[in-house]
Design a protein that fits this description.
The chain is an alpha+beta fold. It is built from eight helices and four strands, in the order βαβαββαααααα.
């Protein structure tokens, strides 16, 4: 396969999911800056690739693909990495439920606090909204704490998987946002395991929330 082209800025957590996946796979890729201060994702050129006008987008020999978690699943399957995304239906489901949890539950929880406190977006500057988001976010992280303490050392069990990439970056965002956080020792140990991975170190994915 030729080089995978990744369109999107590094400051996007969703772009970093794809970059980390590529590093774990050991495949060759090239990234181009798009969105928020770089090339506009609202042009007809970009919208022809992703009608949502969002990053990341990848271009491969198979075609164009968007949605970060879907991209990560595709790449793991394309390169036959059953350790990251098992082929067995049950084992795969145990990984995918946490990938989906990250997208549907965890992402929604942090939006108000992160966008208000880190991105400084005026639409999310309301202190009541930030406080409610913080409570919700911490609650989701407590769910993660219980899961890792019970079934760890990784989120889907004994082995590192795609679920750890998408959730690990969300943990990094939680740790990097100036909010009050409960002490979650299992989550803290979990994140240190992720930071020790060579692919994580190469990307320095904890450099920004």
């Amino acid at each position: 396969m030729s080089v995978v082209r990744i369109l999107g800025r590094v400051s996007s957590i969703n772009v970093r999911k794809v970059l980390w996946t590529c590093e774990e796979l050991g495949i060759e890729y090239a990234r181009e800056d798009w969105g928020a201060g770089f090339a506009s994702t609202k042009t007809s050129e970009f919208l022809a690739l992703n009608p949502n006008g969002l990053v990341p987008v990848i271009k491969t020999d198979d075609g164009v693909l968007w949605e970060s978690n879907t991209i990560c699943r595709y790449l793991a399957s394309k390169y036959d990495r059953g350790d990251l995304l098992p082929s067995d239906p049950w084992r795969r489901a145990l990984v995918e439920r946490w990938i989906d949890w990250q997208a549907t539950e965890l992402n929604g929880a942090w939006r108000g606090a992160f966008l208000g406190l880190v991105r400084k977006e005026a639409a999310h500057a309301d202190l009541v909204t930030i406080a409610a988001s913080t409570i919700d976010w911490n609650g989701k992280m407590e769910i993660l704490e219980k899961q890792i303490a019970m079934d760890g050392p990784f989120v889907a069990g004994r082995n590192f998987s795609l679920a750890d990439i998408v959730i690990g970056l969300s943990v990094n965002r939680w740790l990097g946002t100036p909010i009050e956080r409960p002490a979650l020792p299992a989550v803290a140990d979990y994140f240190e395991r992720l930071r020790a991975r060579p692919a994580f170190k190469r990307g320095a994915y904890d450099a920004m929330p």
